[in-house]
Design goal:
The complex is a heterotrimer of chains A (139), B (282) and C (122).
Chain A (H helix, E strand, L loop, with lengths): L3 H4 L4 E5 L2 H17 L4 H22 L2 E10 L2 E10 L7 H4 L13 H8 L2 E7 L2 E9 L2
Chain B lengths: L2 H14 L1 H16 L5 H20 L11 H17 L3 H15 L7 H43 L4 E4 L2 E7 L4 H18 L3 E8 L5 H17 L2 E5 L3 H10 L8 E2 L2 H20 L4
Parallel strand pairs in B: 2-3, 3-4, 4-5
Antiparallel strand pairs in B: 1-2
Helix pairs in contact in B: 1-6, 2-3, 2-5, 3-4, 4-6, 5-6, 7-8
Chain C lengths: L6 E4 L2 E5 L6 H18 L3 E5 L8 H16 L3 E5 L3 H10 L7 E3 L2 H12 L4
Helix pairs in contact in C: 1-2
Classes of the chains: A alpha+beta (139), B alpha/beta (282), C alpha/beta (122).
Chain lengths: 139, 282, 122
């Protein structure tokens, strides 16, 4: 997926190192979603997805940086959010994206659930870190 | 001969014979539109456009996408939108712009220099004419999408059937977007009216496929999480057969054959609540 | 984080009204506090009001489900009340159905439901 945040002049950057940071990141994403005119349900889905991905980043990637930006493309407007960590990466992406409850703090619904909540979802993972990019289009 | 001297020539000509050209332009366009627009209004519109063009040319530009033509472009977009609403075709609107070429032609085809200037100017007008077509299309698209949205709202009324019971009669084909709207409206109505029971009646839905069944299931589950009970009624025999044949898991969805059965069931449960209240049990 | 969600006792009922966006530690603390308070007070019911929550993600959803299961073992019934429509739709999409959790539209209906359960009528 294109890095919409790089092209935008109103990109918001939030470092995520504690679970408190996840809360403020959610608020940043919500404010942006409201400004971009997403409906309440769309906002809620986007913020929930951001919460899941932010927590994943914190738990598995040791924290990282979240960037959020408005997107306008072919008459639609939406919100782009990128989650980038420098963790060990995800060994089996396909498995990580499979649905299912895992015991304790496992991968559970985090990735697959977040994917269902947004319109575009892109993940790259390697030994030097994981990057997830999502877009939620407005209605 | 460069752009600069071309624009100077154009500006000189357009300034010197302003009133003459404007009158001719308005006349040509007026004939074209055959009186569907008053001459006064037309004269005002074209006058504004003429001035904006002249100002841009005076700034030395012949690039229709350039900053200098910003004012001209917004005037044209405005004009095109108005014409679209008044029912003119995009051709009518584009020709209004192209007509200025005809007006200028006799005065600018004398010598080689003026011909070059004329050609450049007519290229500029071509671009601007196309811009009106684009704006026209966009306006139409906006009108269509806002109508589609209104239709969506109209086609999904949530009605109160009894104290504590709301219903949605669904008619027609269900798609994702529509189901989303139905879900949102139904669930919000539960909160607003403090209703514990919802009935979705699908008597008017011709077919139920996997996706529609999925959407109905999601609505039922969402309502349950909010503390309400949602029932599907009006399932016709062939739909019941399709559901079984498709192997759709309808397991957890409470269903009733008819709306009246669903309503009776809901009322029974609402009555039970009320009875407990009266008994002073609660 | 030292913020904790208050757990109020009214008769045999524990009332939790979540008013702020919770971070994960607060969620874990709440789960811990609730089970301790159920044992300490001998409460028969718990009402968790989430009407102020703008989002419920899988972490909070799981806490609500776990809490219902744990309190049931400790002899108390949990009712989650006031879930917003947008939140419910999002949870369904996320894949959580919270099937083991009793719910009610609002606090008043939640308390009524608890009394009906206590009277063996629900």
């Amino acid at each position: 997926m294109k890095d919409y945040a790089a092209a935008s002049t109103s990109t918001e950057t939030v470092p995520v190192a504690t679970s408190g940071d996840v809360v403020s990141m959610r608020q940043t994403v919500r404010t942006l979603a409201q400004r971009c005119g997403l409906s309440l349900v769309h906002q809620t889905k986007l913020v929930t997805a951001a919460s899941e991905l932010g927590r994943n980043m914190l738990v598995y990637g040791g924290g990282g940086v979240v960037r959020a930006a408005p997107v306008v493309d072919a008459g639609r407007s939406g919100v782009f959010v990128e989650f980038r960590d420098k963790g060990p990466g995800i060994a089996d992406l396909e498995l990580a994206l499979t649905d299912g409850w895992t015991s304790g703090n496992g991968m559970g619904l985090g990735l697959s659930g977040a994917k269902r909540l947004v319109d575009e979802f892109d993940i790259e993972s390697g030994p030097s870190g994981t990057t997830v990019r999502i877009v939620k289009w407005g209605r | 001969m460069n752009t600069e001297s071309n624009t100077r020539l154009l500006v000189d000509t357009l300034t010197a014979r302003r009133d003459d050209f404007l009158a001719q332009w308005a006349r040509t366009v007026g004939e074209d539109l055959r009186g569907r627009l008053s001459m006064a209004e037309l004269g005002r519109e074209l006058g504004e456009l003429y001035e904006a063009l002249l100002r841009a040319l005076s700034a030395g530009s012949l690039d229709s996408h350039g900053e200098e033509f910003g004012e001209t472009r917004s005037l044209l977009i405005e004009l095109s939108r108005n014409r679209a609403r008044q029912g003119f075709t995009p051709t009518d609107t584009a020709r209004s712009v192209f007509a200025l070429k005809e007006v200028l032609e006799p005065s600018l085809t004398g010598d080689a220099d003026s011909v070059r200037a004329y050609l450049q100017f007519s290229r500029l007008l071509d671009d601007l004419g196309l811009l009106t077509s684009e704006a026209y299309l966009r306006t139409r698209e906006e009108i269509i999408s806002s109508q589609a949205e209104q239709l969506l709202e109209l086609s999904t009324p949530v009605v109160k059937l009894w104290d504590g019971v709301v219903g949605v009669p669904l008619v027609g084909t269900l798609d994702s977007a529509r189901t989303q709207v139905v879900m949102e409206k139904l669930l919000q109505t539960l909160v607003d009216t403090d209703s514990t029971h919802a009935i979705i009646d699908i008597t008017g839905v011709p077919t139920v496929d996997t996706q529609v069944a999925q959407h109905l299931l999601k609505t039922v589950v969402a309502a349950r999480m909010m503390g309400a009970r949602c029932t599907i009624s009006g399932i016709r025999p062939q739909i019941a057969q399709t559901i079984v044949a498709l192997g759709i898991e309808f397991g957890d969805i409470p269903t009733n054959a008819s709306l009246s059965d669903a309503l009776r069931q809901a009322l029974k449960e609402v009555a039970l609540d009320a009875e407990d209240d009266v008994r002073g049990l609660l | 984080m030292t913020d904790r969600v208050p757990v109020l006792k009214i008769g045999e009922v524990l009332l939790v009204s979540i008013q702020t966006d919770l971070d994960d530690q607060m969620v874990l603390d709440l789960q811990e506090d609730l089970s301790h308070r159920i044992v300490a007070t001998g409460a028969k019911g718990v009402v968790i009001d989430i009407s102020a929550l703008e989002i419920v993600d899988s972490f909070v959803g799981r806490m609500l489900a776990n809490n219902a299961a744990v309190s049931r073992i400790l002899g108390a019934e949990t009712i989650v009340v006031g879930m917003r429509p947008a939140v419910a739709m999002t949870l369904v999409e996320l894949g959580l159905s919270m099937s083991g959790v009793r719910t009610a539209l609002n606090l008043e209906r939640g308390l009524k439901l608890l009394r009906r359960i206590a009277a063996g009528r629900a």
